[in-house]
Fold these 2 entries.
Entry 1:
Amino acid sequence: MEQFPIFLNLNNFPCAVVGGGDVAFRKASALLKAQAELTIISPKVCPELKQLIDDHHLTWLNQNYQDQLIDNMRLVVAATDNETVNAQVYAYCEAHKILINTVDSPKYCRYTTPSIVDRSPILIAISSAGMSPVLARRIRATIESSLPQALGEIAEYAGSLRTRIKQAFSTLDQRRTFWENFFSSSIVSRFRQLKAEQKEQIVNDLIANEQVQGEVWLVGAGPGDEELLTIKALQKMQLADVIVYDRLISQKTLDLARKDADFICVGKQKNYHLKQQEEINDLLVRLAQEGKKVCRLKGGDPFIFGRGGEELETLVEHQIPFQVIPAVTAAAGCASYAGIPLTHRDYARKVVFVTGQNSKAGDYPDWQALVRPYQTLVVYMGLTRAQLIKDELIHHGMSKSMPVAIVEKGTTREQKVYVGNLDNLPQLARDNQIGSPALLIIGEVVKLANTLNWFNPDELTDETSTFNTYIKP
Ligand code: SAH
């Protein structure tokens, strides 16, 4: 270990920032967050720093740096752009046992400031010992995105319960179990949504050791590339006790979920029957009734051809609390990664999402409405109906030469984009033995695929994504 981490209490701790520019302003702001008793030393200061000085009634010594100005300081930041001055400040501080940090200059530092994730009172500090602040900042961003925003409030709330829990449970073991259950409960996952009396109820149930009600999160996992997950989706995946997922969800996506969660694949296949959907609905209800936090992970967006609505109706019937986390739908993901803008001022003012599967026999779309000019048509689950789609669209007046793209396994390492026209659509699908999932994009905008094509699936190597090692509990 190059350095020893400490958290410093700055109350009644005289600190000085030497310098008056942007960097000095940032350092001064950071010190003030921890209530430092602050002096600024600089003949000139930038407007932001001047504002800070006025707002916080700071001491401003508007003169050039001289050693005796920092005599009474206990911590100093050298933030001038003059290396000689910085070196002088450092030498003086070292000689007089004052903590010194020199911005961007590890050799003139007694201490360095870490990158922080601030969910006060929870504070996470990341240090690269001054070797690579950018790396530390990237790690910080990763941690930042994986922690609930309300973490600080949760910690404070937990703090407010401590005496009560001590009285309620006599042994350390009992108390530990309580806190384990507390932090797995919906108090954490829904802290800002719950009213005070609801939190109180959960705490009372936990104290009485009663079963806490479970809940279901209907979470969209996006079209494939796991880095397209939303921050919320990731958080839910990491909090869940059970992950109930569809066949379309990739292993790489599942790898980001809580390691010790139970994983249940409800692998829906093409032509699945209603009964299977009912079984899924019942499974969700049963798990929630057992008190589990269930992450129902669905490909793309849960409300776009995902039957998410049906699953929720069953939950409502059984009064099970739920949340819905939206996501990048296949149309948006595949179009972006294939370089096909779904709308374009010259080619399409409208975009229509349709499914190629009909829920009842004879339940056909309004083909006429799908053949309007300046419109992009995106067909989900349409590959096996390519012949019918071609025939009907042409029959209703669409040009045989209308550009068409088939995007196979969009946004993944195996993405392939096949471009043709409406007339040869069925052949395009047959000749290339396209696998599932695949999406059809029909419209003039497909012409742009050649020029706007930017995505190289080979670049989605393990290395690119392993940098983003999300925190797994
Ligand atoms: N809820 C999902 C759609 C579910 S229907 C969403 O919002 O994206 C399943 C269909 O979505 C598939 O048959 C296919 O047409 C399309 N699809 C989903 N992911 C895809 C992908 N990565 N590449 C191509 N098509 C995809």
Entry 2:
Amino acid sequence: MLIMKFGGTSVGKPERMKKIAELVLSTPGKKIVVLSALSGTTNALVSIGEHLLAGQKAKAEEVIVDLEKHYEAFIKELYGSEAFLAIGQEIVSRYFIFIRLLAAGQFDNKSYRELLAQGELISTELFYQHVQERKISARLLPALYFMSIDENEEPELEKISERLKPLLSSLNNIEVIITQGYICRNHRNEIDNLKRGGSDYTASLIGSAIRAEEIQIWTDIDGMHNNDPRIVKKTIPISELTFDEASELAYFGAKILHPSTIVPAQKYNVPVRLKNTMDEKAFGTIITSKGTEGSFKAIAAKDGITAINIKSSRMLMAYGFLRRVFEVFENHKTSIDMVTTSEVAVSLTIDNNTHLASIENELKKFGNIEVDKDQAIICIVGNKITEQKGMLNKIFDALAEIPLRMICSGGSPNNVTVLVHKQYKNKALNLLNEGLFGLK
Ligand code: ADP
Ligand code: ASP
Ligand code: MG
């Protein structure tokens, strides 16, 4: 079984949706097709939800009207016959009646999450009807029947696998099974999601749960590039990456993959292939456990980082001190990305400020606390770069002009992370591109 996931841009225009139907058809064997919402839809749903939470019903209705028009135009191009256009119209009007019903009621966080799920629900229904029109043998398998997260918002891989087994064996004769990315149920059995960009994660969770042959992530670029193409002009695709390398890049900001995508795939050793829907002949990137030669592989950056410095000459070297500091973060369900220590202070970073005020308050018992918001982590990934002579020099030579707030190296031989103020992020990415890859 193959998993084929198509992102928002791959289904965002009627001709692209038709194109992916062809791609699926021309790929031999059985496959599970995971679809995102049409590009722009989840952003629109976020904006509708935020207006509603703020009590701005009229503003929400304006966005709903625009979105509805978009779908009405979309189906006119997607379906060839009057009969299927009528089916498409019924689907669109049903979803928009439901969205308006959600908007009219008591709108809380639960309704918000339900609203966010509508994008993937509608895209998969429209695509399913499109393949029906083309007489392809396919079935729609609702993700809400099997995809779930626990009270810590962690996917329940074992349960997902157990639920999928009977569902898939009942579809034994079907070549193409279509399901929604991103959406799931939470521990209260409510509709929830795997966070923005989560369709990649859905694909890797399904692929790992059923030990698929391969997880394919089809998007709008020819694989993982050596640097962020939205910020750096000249970037190049990387044909092979290890799970560790890809995982670091995804976690530290390479938007092509949801940060957790690689985790289940690595656990069950299922290869992940990144492919370009706009250029299917391009090789893309294959991610496996196999190490590859070479030195520097890629650079990624993650914004919205807060650095916290705890200065405590009295206590720092005492045993148990770091454990007590980390416990404060654990109690607030806030994970730490970078850590550095000195004789008198410890610095660490977090990417979630939800509980910052209370964390700061509790840390005060350990000493003086300084908090710097608006930082960015730059992550340099390569093959054993911290073990090879001269590699670190190359990084620091390239970044000579940039003030570095923190430096972490040695946690893994394949990665170095530095923390800079967000104003230096773009410059740092460009300087590293030139210094490490000779690309300008
Ligand atoms: P999809 O809608 O298919 O999920 P995304 O927009 O989430 O697509 O991800 C693809 C985008 O990720 C690319 O268009 C590119 O701009 C961005 N991106 C950021 N960093 C990288 C990288 N290192 N390599 C490739 N693409 C990247
Ligand atoms: N539609 C969701 C989002 O825009 C999930 C995804 O595209 O992966 O975040
Ligand atoms: Mg994405």
